[in-house]
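Minutes, project check-in

Agenda point 3 was the complex the collaborators sent over. CS summarized: two entities, 444 residues total, and the question is how they sit relative to each other. Sequences were read into the notes so everyone works from the same version.
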Amino acid sequence: MVINPITDGIVLDHITAGKGMQLYKILNLDELECSVAIIKNAGSKKMIRKDIIKIDKVIDLDFDVLGFIDPGITVSIIKNGKVEKYKDLKLPKTLKGVIACKNPRCITTTEQELEHVFKLTDSEKGTYRCIYCDAEAKSK
Amino acid sequence: MKHLIDILDLSVEELQELIDTAKDIISNPAKYSEKCKGKKLATLFFEPSTRTRLSFEAAMMELGGNVLGFSEAQSSSASKGESVSDTVKIVSCYADIIAMRHPKEGAPLVASMRADVPVINAGDGGHNHPTQTLADLLTIVREKGRLDNMTVGFCGDLKFGRTVHSLIGALSRYENINYVLISPEELKLPEYIKDEMLIKKGANFKEVTDLEGVIPELDVLYMTRVQRERFFNEADYIRLKDSYVLTLPKLESAKSDLSILHPLPRVNEISVAVDDDPRACYFRQALNGKYMRMALILKLLEVK
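CS then shared the predicted structure for the full assembly.
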């Protein structure tokens, strides 16, 4: 299967196989008017199978969301046919407005205007805690 | 401006400073009787409390300051739907310092982000209760003369018991503490607290379900109440509420210098007969709470 190289755009590589569509939805890529390619189950020496997303335009991406959902992703930003920036995503230290606290006792359940903020407390286990109530969330 | 939301907001040095101030207040109360003259403490209690609120109020009065506030959400604008943020913004106009209790976890943190005056967490749901921990620490220091090198048993509701979580967090910064965690399976210490406060710090601890078997080992026994208000299911509360009751016969095998602490109120988990035993420290502990709150108010108001 051949997908043409992009001149200006973004390549999300090393996506855990099967997560490509999830990312497509979460990043609202369906709303873009440019070409977007999702390659599922591509062969990979490192991962055996991986997903890849190619976006034919440079857009603002929330790297925190990406890092939280799939911290192994690599991001290449391509301009004039060359990789201008390459980023290994890591788990972000803070997540603001990415996930909602599910603790029914948390103040965020009653004070609706509060931004849900989580801090990374254990990078090995990918554990985040709500800054208000300490409820746990894990990177998926 | 400094707030006290979590006991870990205070360094070990700051804790020692508060303990030293509290001891000085005990020795020289007259010296402190006008330290907060002209200052006002607002006690914003969105959830019922007797000793914590009265202790805060007594603390401010003994420092020569004044007190205003409310003791239940129904008598505040919260009953009209006002947010915590707005309430504290308004109260900041009237008071120099705020003590807040709220049933929602994290409410005092939200308050501290919005308030123009120091905020003290006087208990937020099952989450934190740092001033109770200050009372606990002063009690241990006064009874034992130290905060390190001892075996501390925590008994009862270790899952929802916020005082247990805060005290374990505070003690985890002192040397050579052995923890004995005594609870029914359903009310065990949450994994994340065990992991972050004990396992990662290499602390010695064990989890047991039988109080009598471990009581001879203990230097401090921290009893807790199974709290009805933390259960969504009444049947679970009724099943677990009588899990541990401390009686004089159970104390026969305990050390002669054991210190029995309880954050109070108790229901039936410590027999009234134990009250006259010199090892029962819980009423002295309530008094210590007032002294530590006095020391804390002085510190946060930066009164010398």
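Noted in discussion: The first strand of chain A starts at residue 9 and ends at 16.
Follow-up: revisit at the next meeting once the mutant set is ready.
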